[in-house]
Amino acid sequence: RASLLALSAGGMLAFTCVITAALLKLIAPIAALGGVMGFVLLFAVGLGPIPWLIVSEMFPTELVTNAQAVASQLNWACAFVVGLGFPAVNAALGAYAFAPFGVVLLLALGFVVTLLPETHERTPAELHALTLLRASDPAAYASKLADEARAKKASAPKERWARAFRLVKATNRFKYAEEWWGLGADGDVAAYGAVSQQETSIA
């Protein structure tokens, strides 16, 4: 989640610079079109969908409703302010009308990189413990993240084999169905169980 948000904010910031440069005629004006397309594309990658799902990953079940309600209200309030105020900003800043968006994206990128914890494969309780650890002992927090990164890197080959196995099984699903049905139909329960256990251990 955090990496996608960082990619999204950083990319949108870069395309904001492209749009501003095109409006200032520092580059070809047609580049503004590509800048807008890239801006929208990267918004759809991270800052668009992830804030709607990350709340449920960061809060325990009993607090998700309240947290999601506050986040949703704030999101729509900011969208209302942007829609209402952009014509005035455009009239006042002209070619620099996208500069305020760039400032907000820069702040968002800094927040994601420095403060937002990675929620993927972590429970709300683990996130809470990590937040307390970062506040009380930054060195231990950094060491824990480094250990997790090393463990993830060590397990990467096994994950690649698992993905490859699933791909092969998906592309040959009819062959697998025939073999499994044949084992089951012939009453060879032991062989059927062995095949199932072997595939489970690989996956």
Could you characterize the architecture of this molecule?
The structure is a single chain. The chain has helices spanning 2-23, 31-47, 50-58, 61-93, 99-114, 124-136, 138-154, 156-171, 173-185, 189-202. It is an all-alpha fold and 203 residues long. The two termini are 24 Å apart. 9% of the residues are buried.
Low-confidence stretches: 183-192
How much of the sequence lies in strands comes to under 5%
Radius of gyration: 25 Å
Average pLDDT: 78
The ordered string of helix (H) and strand (E) elements is: HHHHHHHHHH
Distance between the termini: 24 Å
Shape field: globular
Structural class category: mainly alpha
Largest beta sheet, briefly? none
Q: Helical region count? A: 10
- Give the fraction of residues assigned to helices: over 70%
> How many β strands by DSSP?
0
